[in-house]
Design a protein that fits this description.
This protein has 446 residues and is of the alpha+beta class. The chain is built from twelve helices and eleven strands. Strand 5 and strand 6 form a beta hairpin. The longest helix has 58 residues.
Length: 446
């Protein structure tokens, strides 16, 4: 219901009448006394009494005394008038403040976009604002009175449970309430239920606040679906990328390797020909040297595209070969690899992503960390593979954005296999990258 708006009345007229009456009493009393004294001839009786008595009284100054008393009573009445004026002025100011506060409260209650309702301990609505009536699909707040709010709450904590929490903690916050309206409209709300207690501690009634979060829930659902689609597309993109790398590596090995060997063989046959001019023999030697250089570059490129050890010997051997490759330059950095459990039986999708994660992490640490030790540790824990990569380098300021794609690439690859990714680092204290990757098969989207 809407809060009724009634002006506050103060007895101004009554106060003024009382003051006027006080003013009127003085002359009226004087006149009445004069009339009564004249009617009964009280002055003559009093004079005769004084004459017959042994005492002598001087009553010539009596009118002056009566006049002084009248002036004193008038002065006190005037003082009372001034006090009443100040009191009325103060009451007028208080009335205006109360009217302004009531208007503000009426506006906050009736025009608030959040639902507000006062209900009994059994959930019966005593009063509510239009927003709460809209929650319940009821046209006006007046029509909502008498309805049981508990009948509209679905898929959440029961009303009795909410009452128990309110009695214990005086209030309860509900992150999500599903309100089913009179005509079946589903509204999600974030609510707070506040209890009002009597002096003996018994719960009298409840004040319910509810904010509509239906649009937020819808947006969260859409974002969740989009993230799932993005996750699926990312996984597919990585799989296609690895498949394409495998094809390119195979083509380079099969086609380019054969033709390079053929070119080298032809150049070698030229060198071995008798009576060959010196300049041609020199060119042939250059061709052999260039062929060897291209072949070595192609082998390195093939290894980066798809390490042969990964397909032929398994993940453990491929990782060991990767560590040995980084040890070869002897730049002062030590590399350690520890594998506590058998990991060569993992799915091919997991295998290549784990290899790429470790490859990217070592590459970043070797190029940017200025570390003296890079340690890689793999072990199983509760059905998940833990990949722990640490270094004692300069660290990464995590609070600052990074322009490179190293950490972002690692994070996306771990997400693609439903894993979790953590980075802990600080300037000058080294960096630790920890990935928790489930070894169960990845669920594909339908």
């Amino acid at each position: 219901m809407r809060i009724p708006f009634a002006p506050i009345t103060i007895g101004k007229q009554l106060d003024r009448k009382n003051v006027l009456l006080e003013f009127a009493i003085v002359p009226c009393s004087f006149i009445l006394t004069y009339l009564i004294a004249g009617y009964f001839e009280l002055s003559e009786i009093f004079i005769d009494w004084t004459l017959t008595s042994n005492d002598e009284y001087d009553i010539d100054e009596l009118p002056y005394a009566l006049a002084a008393a009248t002036l004193a009573m008038s002065w006190f009445a005037w003082r009372r008038w001034q006090e009443i004026k100040r009191e009325v002025r103060s009451r007028n100011q208080t009335e205006q403040a109360l009217l302004a506060e009531r208007l503000q409260f009426q506006t906050l209650f009736n025009e608030n976009l959040a639902g507000n309702a006062v209900v009994t301990t059994h959930g019966v609505i005593k009063m509510c604002n239009p927003a709460m009536a809209c929650f319940l699909e009821i046209q006006t707040p007046e029509q909502a009175e008498g309805n049981n709010l508990a009948d509209y709450l679905q898929h959440g904590p029961s009303w009795s449970h909410l009452m128990e929490v309110v009695k214990e903690h005086q209030k309860v916050d509900v992150e999500q309430l599903c309100v089913i309206g009179l005509y079946g409209k589903r509204t999600y709300a974030m609510a707070r239920i506040l209890g009002h207690f009597s002096q003996d501690g018994s719960l009298q009634f409840l004040h319910v606040f509810a904010a509509d979060i239906t649009e937020i829930k819808t947006a969260e659902s859409e974002i969740s679906n989009l993230l799932k689609e993005n996750h699926f597309l990312l996984r597919q993109a990585l799989e296609l990328q690895e498949e394409e790398r495998r094809h390119i590596a195979r083509d380079l090995h099969d086609d380019m390797g054969q033709y390079l060997n053929a070119i080298k063989a032809n150049a070698t046959s030229l060198v071995n020909m008798p009576d060959l001019p010196a300049n041609i023999s020199e060119v042939a030697l250059h061709i052999i040297s260039h062929s060897d250089h291209i072949y070595r570059s192609a082998r390195q490129l093939i290894h980066r595209l798809r390490p042969a050890a990964l397909d032929e010997l398994g993940l453990s051997a491929a990782l060991q070969h990767l560590i040995d490759t980084w040890k070869y330059p002897a730049n002062g950095t030590r590399y350690q690899l520890a594998i506590d459990h058998e990991i060569d039986h993992l799915d091919d999708k997991l295998t290549i992503n784990i290899y790429r994660v470790i490859q990217e992490a070592i590459t970043n640490a070797a190029r940017h960390a200025q570390a003296s030790l890079i340690d890689v540790h793999l072990f199983m824990q509760g059905g998940s593979l833990i990949v722990d990569i640490t270094d004692d380098g300069c660290g990464i300021p995590l609070a600052q954005p990074h322009k490179g794609l190293g950490l972002a690439g690692i994070r996306e690859r771990i997400k693609a296999v439903d894993g979790k990714f953590e980075v802990s680092s600080a300037a000058g204290t080294g960096t630790r990258i920890r990935a928790v990757i489930p070894t169960t098969p990845i669920k594909e989207m339908v």
